[in-house]
Amino acid sequence: MNSCVHAASKPRKSSQTSVLCLSSAGYGDDLKSIPPIRRKPILDHGTALTHSVSQSTAMAFAASDELLGTFVPVAVYWVYSGIYVLLGDLENYRLHTKAEENAKNIVSKWTVVKGVLLQQAFQIAVSLLLFTVITILLTVVISHRCTHCMDRTDRSLRVQVIKDESGAEKPQPSVPAIIAQFIVAMFVLDTWQYFMHRYMHVNKFLYKHVHSKHHTLVVPYAFGALYNHPLEGLLLDTIGGALAFLVSGMTPRTGIFFFSFATVKTVDDHCGLWLPGNLLHVFFSNNSAYHDVHHQLYGSKYNFSQPFFVMWDKILGTYMPYSLERRKEGGFEARPIKLKS
Fold first, then answer.
1. Exposure check for the chain: N or C terminus, fewer CB within 10 A?
2. How many CA atoms lie within 13 A of 177 on its CB side?
3. Preceding omega of 307 cis (within 30 degrees of 0)
4. Bridge partners for 334 per DSSP
């Protein structure tokens, strides 16, 4: 049997302690010294917490799912809308002629590009700010609940948050669970956007100073889908997306795919084209023709639903049915059935 005592080492520049183990059989003849264990100087709690917060926040931004969920949909927006630009005018599939687009749209395409980039920059800033605040709050909570974390300031608390007690990364939900989360998120986002969108048309002040910016594009096109006032982007997209994410219970990784899909759907609804074989038109009756009706003067009080379903329009009496008809000069026209003679 061995008994252990601690003997202070000779004074050195760095604070050290030697652990000495005495053999009970030899009463010290077999004295062995374990290599000194260096102790970190006792840090002031405020200093340690500040260091921990700054370090965990920095590492949380290093290619996390939350960060990807912020930037990937932006990239998807420009890639998908860019595909429509590369396809050209496609006069035989347009819902409005090129002449109508040039005559009716109040703003230039360069103004639209700058406006979309401004809104996306604003949304990114808001998302990163919320992400930073949440990370700091989690760090502070964990630091106070786990006092020994003060001696582990070299570890990212963010890693502790996203990993379980065994240190293994938490598994992602099953495919059926992800599908269910998608459906719930789609319903929540549609509900939020329908009522907010409709209110922006009912409230004259909000329409004049906020939502009318989007309606300067009477003839929509793909990369003008998010040409909105920053306040509208915050209310409809940022808050609506956050609610859909939280209520559905999806993981940040699932959120990357959901918000990328929602972005594709939004761009497609504003593309101003009726392309054959478009799967989004097959699965969703809320499509480019449906939304085009809303952008026209006669349809501004109808078809508020976006971006997935049309249920709220049908339930609350704001649904305007239409028929797609061929134009003599080529292309299609979404002609409202209610106004059809």
1. C
2. 8
3. yes
4. 324
CA geometry: angle 186, 190, 192, nearest 5 deg = 120
Q: What is the distance between the alpha carbons of residues 334 and 286, in angstroms, rounded to a whole number?
A: 13
Distances (CA, A) of 188 to 16, 66, 126, 181, 327: 59, 20, 21, 10, 37
**Rounded Cα–Cα distance for residues 234 and 227 (Å):** 13
| Bridge partners (DSSP) listed for residue 17 | 37
| Structure token pair of residue 34 | 């374990």
Which sequence spans correspond to the domains of the chain? 2-38, 45-336
Distance from the first to the final alpha carbon of the chain: 103
Q: What is the pLDDT of residues 259-298, one digit of tens each?
A: 999 999 999 999 999 999 999 999 999 999 999 999 999 9
Taking the CA atoms of residue 20, residue 21, residue 25 and residue 26 in that order, the dihedral angle to the nearest 10 degrees is -20
| Residue 246: both structure tokens together | 């939280």
C-alpha span between 134 and 157 (Å, rounded):
12
Enter the pTM of the model. 0.74
* Strands (E) located in the chain: 2-7, 16-23, 32-38, 322-326, 332-336
**Amino acid identity at 119:** Q
Rg for the chain, CA atoms, rounded: 30
Show Cβ contacts of residue 8 under 8 Å, excluding neighbours closer than 6 positions: 17, 18
**Which residues make Cβ contacts (< 8 Å) with residue 59, sequence separation at least 6?**
156, 158, 159
